[in-house]
Amino acid sequence: MNIPTSILQLISSEQAYHYNIVPIKVTNGAVTFLSIDDSNTLKQELEIILGKNVALRKEKKHIIDNYLAKNYRQNQSKTTERLQYQNDFLETLLLTAQDIGCSDIHFEHYEEICRVRFRLDGKLKEHYLIPLEEYPIIVNKIKIKAGLDISEKRLPQDGRITIKVAQQEFDIRVSSLPTLYGEKMVLRILNKDASEIVLGDLGFTDTELGVYKETIKNPNGIVLISGPTGSGKTTTLYATLKLLNDTNTNILTIEDPIEYTLEGINQVQLKENIGLDFASTLRTFLRQDPDIIMVGEIRDVNTANMAIRAALTGHLVLSTIHTNSAWATISRLIDMGIPAFLIASTLNVSVAQRLVRKLCDNCKKETTLTKEAFPSNFKVPDKITSHYIPQGCNICHHTGYMGRKAIYEIIPITKDLITHIKDNVLEIDDYLKEHDIHTLKDNAQELVFKGVTSVEEVYSLLTD
User: What predicted TM-score, i.e. pTM, was given to this entire model?
Assistant: First the structure.
């Protein structure tokens, strides 16, 4: 089932599904395909299309279906307008990635090979190998589309591409990085339409959703969402803005990049090369009569200070920060040099989140629980006797997982916690238990025991 990428890329996903064929080997320039039809007519047609000698090996349909599901993703879009890009590898690649739900595309140059990897459901998968001599041409095409300097190969660069096809438009954020053998390019696909994002569908429990909605009703203060890159923080922020957005409210955002567009919200794209950074833009925002301000990320002490100043002057500020837990956000702000009393008087709620893959309901398998499957310091509840493991089927492309779900840790800042912050208390486990506040670990283990996800998917969260 694990066919090398160099063989898989001989045909497109559309060709594989149209003809019900899978390439399995190349011998002396001749390609051998598994097929449900080994007729001479199909053989001749494939030879004309591919310009290579073809050998067909007949196989049962269910086996072909397994191979197709494992190795090729079907495009969601079937619009005929996309055919105009068939002669341009880069355009076809970008549209294919967007069609199959890819979040990032990695172009990588090594000593012997150049490859393209797609990030699907949070995991990278190799999709194409590019000849060494063609790699610089593709990199230059990307740079030209993104408005980057093609002569600059020694320094990192950032740009943006907008793709318009049929009735669809989407943006791609481009980042180049000089490496040992050549430039690495990472393209982040940004879905511009935020109309489908609903706060209640993201993964909050009913209790957490109620607490979160209460905290964002405050007319002033700071709402901070933390988590690693790619954990869905921005999606949570946009879902919050969508809930708060109405004709009586002036909402301003400063972002890098603008990942979604929302009607009725004034969005500003960060441009640090001309001095338009988070801190200076926030200073201007305060003269724009805002009600709600969203800052894409608190990266430094200047941005943190301006966010606190905005909260102190009667504005609601929403932002993200990179920490491992909701309580660690307070420590991070103190490390930046923000006085504890200012944090205590402005922070409304601290949220931490992660994205976990959900087990495929069609093929997940219940198995007897063993302590060896869990981290050594994890205490398994006595009443739990089984859990589910991934198997893999055609529906989930033999990954064992289908879709993702966010899990949250929400700590509203109460009077007791204000005292803890001022006293710089690092451990609040007893407080969380006393107030029945679920941590990321609590929610992760609940998903495991309910059969929503697997132990391996949340292993790091279960470790103390």
Answer: 0.81
